[in-house]
Design brief:
By secondary structure, this protein is α/β, with parallel strands linked by helices. The protein is built from 14 helices and 12 strands. Helix 9 links the parallel strand 8 and strand 9. The chain is elongated and about 75 Å long. The structure holds 6-O-phosphono-beta-D-fructofuranose (F6P).
């Protein structure tokens, strides 16, 4: 089997561990392993035939470069399109990969990946892949390289794209054959594309799994920020309103609020009552102040709104705290500091275990089995049908839009709702 792995959508800590895990588990199980640079965008662009890499040979590792070689160091710093950086070694080390997006990789190409933040193979939110014509090109590029299995690590949007690609696959192959871009033999060989999804997202917004890759690290960053803010807040007796990421999901805000000892938390799934939240929040905060608390921390999820779906922004909260409680209040938007940086231990362990399961899932896949998403439930790595997980996640957004917040919470996390 020829497996390619790609990372898509917003990056998250742990995506490199996914790539490393898929490549190494794939090699151990006798597969050929590939990476696709720049997410679905790389799949659509494929490989420029005028730009050739030397033939794959895992025995060439470190033969021609050493870390002390100044030219090599320059390539690392300035070689736009080089795959590997910062002391990692391998077959593709130091080579310009400009014009090549689908690349054969070996064991040493992913050395040093575990502790790195972001995604070293690049990611993108591809417009082209959303179009049928883009997906047709992507199918052609995969078939051209003989790849028959794909691991996609991304959030709900990326996994939805994976599901569309999988369901269109037979039609795409037929179209390529009819237009003469691939041969009948290629069409027969590639009649079935094996796809498996891993959820890489700091938002922890995917249904049917307890945790997404990158969410623990982002939560850790937020906790550290709360600690830092707490000491300055207490010194000045100030209030701070922290806006945290999570898109339409309140997981980061809720967990950070509990772990950081926040006074009030606003999340989309259980919104505060329209017209009443101001009073409710002030009452809670005042009760903390009267017993001697010198600081106030309010966490606002970026997707927060009230029960009438009117967005609640950190500035709105600040104004209420300043005007009604006369608190000296500041707003801190943590932004992308939540997303970048080194993965915590769990964002190395979880993706590694899930990557191994992803490879096993692909090896066991038959044309009759559905595409799976690899999740985790009650500390066990699981396989769930990708389509079901994507649909359930969409239903959460639908329930919120319909103001059915109880349903949104139970779809997000059935046990928590109980
Ligand atoms: O989905 C991950 C996420 O970080 C969300 O929490 C946030 O809303 C969004 O991506 C930010 O996207 P961008 O990096 O494109 O600004």
């Amino acid at each position: 089997m020829k497996i390619a792995v790609l990372t898509s959508g917003g990056d998250s800590a742990g995506m490199n561990a996914v790539v490393r895990g898929v490549v190494r588990a794939g090699i151990v199980k006798g597969c050929e392993t590939w990476v696709v640079r720049e997410g679905y965008e790389g799949l659509v662009r494929g490989n420029d035939e005028n730009v050739q890499l030397p033939p794959y040979d895992n025995t060439t590792i470190l033969k021609d470069v050493t870390i002390a070689d100044p030219e090599f160091l320059n390539t690392l710093r300035f070689g736009d399109g080089t795959l590997l950086r910062d002391g990692t070694f391998g077959h593709n080390c130091g080579r310009s990969l400009r014009g090549r997006y689908i690349i054969r990789v070996g064991w040493d190409d992913v050395r040093g990946y575990l502790p790195q933040g972001g995604t070293l193979i690049g990611t993108a939110r591809s417009k082209d892949f959303r179009e049928h014509s883009g997906r047709l090109k992507a199918a052609f590029n995969l078939i051209k390289e003989g790849i028959d299995a794909l691991v996609i690590c991304g959030g709900d949007g990326s996994l939805t794209g994976a599901d569309v690609f999988r369901s269109e696959w037979p039609g795409l192959v037929k179209e390529l054959e009819t237009s003469g871009q691939i041969t009948e033999a290629q069409a027969t060989k590639h009649g079935h594309l094996k796809i498996v999804g891993l959820v890489g997202s700091i938002d922890n917004d995917m249904s049917m799994t307890d945790l997404t890759i990158g969410a623990p690290t982002a939560l850790h960053r937020i906790c550290e920020a709360i600690d830092s803010i707490s000491s300055t807040a207490a010194s000045h007796k100030r209030a701070f309103v922290l806006e945290v990421m999570g898109r339409h999901c309140g997981w980061l805000a809720l967990m950070a609020g509990v772990a950081g000892g926040a006074d009030f938390i606003m999340i989309p799934e259980q919104p505060p009552e329209a017209g009443k939240w101001q009073e409710e929040m002030c009452k809670a905060i005042d009760s903390h102040r009267v017993v001697g608390k010198r600081k106030t921390i309010v966490i606002v999820a970026e997707g927060a709104h009230d029960t009438s779906l009117t967005p609640i922004k950190a500035e709105d909260v600040k104004n209420v705290l300043s005007e009604k409680l006369n608190l000296d209040t500041r707003v801190t938007t943590l932004g992308h500091t939540q997303r970048g940086g080194r993965p915590c231990y769990y964002d190395r362990l979880l993706p590694t275990l899930q990557a191994v399961e992803a490879v096993n899932t692909l090896l066991e896949a038959t044309p009759g089995t559905p595409s799976y998403m690899i999740g985790i439930s009650e500390n066990k790595i699981t396989r769930v049908p990708l389509m079901d997980a994507v649909e359930m996640t969409r239903n959460v957004a639908k329930a919120i839009a319909e103001k059915d917040f109880a349903r949104a919470t139970s779809l997000r996390d059935p046990e928590f709702a109980e």
